[in-house]
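User: Please fill in residues for this 193-position structure.
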């Protein structure tokens, strides 16, 4: 059994991940990409430290505008579905309204029992038709040592122009037609910009 060492000053970098749906989270330089799933409207990527801690960033473009409360309900429904098949038990949870990158968000702290006892720090953020879920998992025995890294993750979040909006702006600039103007206005509305 290897006990991970945590660098006192973990350097975060924006170089390793830039999702198409408009959010950036800085990742520790020494972490690696563990898992990635991407399709047209959904992107999920997990980074980890090769031991026991990981950070998952899920971004999604939805057909309708997203409300935070509905997003929270959907998150717990998904968690309950996965819990029964993966033998996961949520022992306790805390909830707090926070501001992340200028947007209203929900912060959840979940005490989860699976093959080990984990603390999951979850941030739910909605922006028009875009939804973002950021999950930082850390073993309970390591949680207090990781609080600085959690704070750094949260303060590193940047909401940027989604690819769809950037493309609509580029097309409207290159060919300023009524069609391209309409597409640009639609994308501006989707991203609430």
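Assistant: Residues filled in for all 193 positions:
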């Amino acid at each position: 059994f290897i006990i991970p060492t945590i660098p006192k000053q973990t350097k975060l970098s924006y170089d390793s991940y830039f999702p198409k749906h408009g959010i950036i989270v800085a990742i520790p330089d020494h972490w690696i990409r563990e898992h990635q799933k991407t399709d047209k409207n959904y992107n999920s990527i997990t980074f980890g430290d090769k031991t026991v801690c990981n950070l998952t960033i899920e971004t999604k473009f939805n057909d309708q505008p997203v409300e935070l409360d509905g997003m929270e309900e959907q998150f717990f429904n998904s968690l309950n579905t996965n819990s029964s098949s993966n033998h996961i038990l949520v022992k306790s949870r805390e909830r707090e309204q926070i501001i992340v990158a200028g947007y209203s968000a929900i912060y959840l702290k979940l005490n989860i029992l699976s093959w080990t006892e984990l603390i999951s720090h979850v941030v739910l953020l909605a922006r028009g038709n875009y939804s973002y879920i950021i999950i930082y998992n850390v073993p309970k025995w390591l949680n207090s040592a990781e609080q600085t890294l959690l704070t750094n993750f949260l303060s590193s979040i940047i909401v940027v122009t989604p690819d769809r909006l950037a493309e609509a702006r580029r097309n409207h600039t290159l060919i300023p037609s009524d069609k391209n103007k309409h597409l640009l206005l639609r994308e501006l509305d989707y991203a609430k910009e």
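For context: The chain has four helices and eleven strands.
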